[in-house]
Specification:
With 249 residues, this protein is α+β, with helices and mostly antiparallel strands. The chain has three domains: 58 residues, RNA-binding S4 domain (Structural Genomics Hypothetical 15.5 Kd Protein In mrcA-pckA Intergenic Region, Chain A, Roll); 93 residues, Pseudouridine synthase I, catalytic domain, N-terminal subdomain (Alpha-Beta Plaits, 2-Layer Sandwich); 78 residues, 2-Layer Sandwich (Alpha-Beta Plaits). The chain contains seven helices and 15 strands. Strands 7, 8, 9, 10, 11, 12, 13, 14 and 15 form a nine-stranded mixed beta sheet that branches. A hairpin with a 2-residue loop joins β11 and β12. It binds uracil. The site of uracil (URA) has 8 residues, from α6.
C-alpha cells in the first residue's frame, strides 16, 4: 500500500502562502489550525499530505488551500498576460491572492497571447506540465478564429500539407487540421505551439486574425459554464481527458 507523503505543518502552510513559519506557529498556538475537529497546537507535527486534506483541516475556520499537485483550468479573458513578471494585468491576478505565494509556484501550461481568450491550464506540478507540452505527447489544441478578410479557399490544403513555412523559421509546420465555419471564421487544431502560431499561419495566407479563442486541449473542452476570468480545479478524470479523446457529447 502506498503511503501519503508527510510534511511538517508549518512548512506545508508556509509553502501554501499562509505566512512565515513563525506566523504559522503563532496561528497553531492560538488554536486557529484544526485537523479532524481538534486544534493542532504543535506546528512542527508531521501530517500526511493527502488530497482530502482541505476537507479535514481548517485555518481560521476556512478549508485549507489545495496541497501541492494542483492543476486548474482557467477561462482566460483577453487583456491579461501569461507571465509571472511582465507589466500589466497577469493571469495570476485572477486566482486567490495567497496562491501567488505558493512554493512550488503555479505556472501556466504554455501560453496564450494577451489578446487570445479561452482554455488555459495551470499547475504547480512540473512533471505534469512537461507531459502536456512535450512535443512527443502531441496533445492537440483547438482554436476558433475570426478573420479580417474572407477565407481564400486553399487554407485547408496548405495547413494540412506539412510544408507551410512561417516567416523567420527554417522548419515547416506539422500538419494542422482546418475547418471553415463561415466566410470569415474557422477552427484550427494543432499539436505544436510555436510563437503566435495561429496568427502567423493566417498572416502567411494574406489574412489577419481579429479574434482568437482556444476551446479545447486534447479531449478537454472549455466548459460552457466557466465564465471568462473564472477557474476550476481539475480532477483526475478531466486531467485524463487532456491526454485522451473528447468526452462524448
Ligand atoms: N496562436 C497564436 O497566435 N496565439 C495564441 O495565443 C495561441 C496560438
Amino acid at each position: 500500500m502506498s503511503r501519503a507523503p508527510t510534511s511538517r505543518l508549518d512548512k506545508l502552510l508556509a509553502n501554501l502562502g499562509y505566512g512565515s513559519r513563525r506566523e504559522i506557529q503563532a496561528l497553531a498556538r492560538a488554536g486557529a489550525i484544526v485537523l479532524d475537529g481538534a486544534p493542532l497546537a504543535a506546528a512542527e507535527a508531521r501530517i500526511p499530505v493527502t488530497r482530502d486534506l482541505p476537507a479535514r483541516l481548517t485555518v481560521d475556520g476556512a478549508p485549507l488551500d489545495p496541497p501541492p499537485g494542483l492543476a486548474l483550468m482557467l477561462h482566460k479573458p483577453t487583456g491579461v498576460t501569461c507571465s509571472h513578471k511582465e507589466a500589466g494585468p497577469l493571469v495570476y491576478s485572477l486566482l486567490p491572492e495567497r496562491w501567488r505565494r505558493r512554493d512550488p509556484p503555479l505556472s501556466t501550461v504554455g501560453r496564450l497571447d494577451k489578446e487570445t481568450s479561452g482554455l488555459l491550464l495551470l499547475t504547480d506540478d512540473g512533471a505534469l506540465l512537461h507531459r502536456i507540452i512535450s512535443p512527443k505527447a502531441k496533445v492537440s489544441k483547438r482554436y476558433r478564429v475570426e478573420l479580417a478578410r474572407p477565407l481564400g479557399g486553399d487554407e485547408g490544403t496548405v495547413f494540412a500539407s506539412g510544408t507551410l513555412m512561417l516567416e523567420g523559421e527554417d522548419k515547416p509546420l506539422l500538419p494542422v487540421e482546418f475547418v471553415a465555419e463561415g466566410p470569415q471564421r474557422a477552427s484550427v487544431t494543432l499539436t505544436e505551439g510555436r510563437y503566435h502560431q495561429v496568427r502567423r499561419m493566417f498572416a502567411a495566407m494574406g489574412n489577419h486574425v481579429t479574434a482568437l479563442h482556444r476551446d479545447r486541449i486534447g479531449g478537454l473542452d472549455l466548459p460552457a459554464d466557466l465564465a471568462p476570468g473564472a477557474y476550476r480545479i481539475l480532477g483526475e478524470a478531466e486531467l485524463a481527458q487532456v491526454f485522451g479523446e473528447a468526452a462524448a457529447p
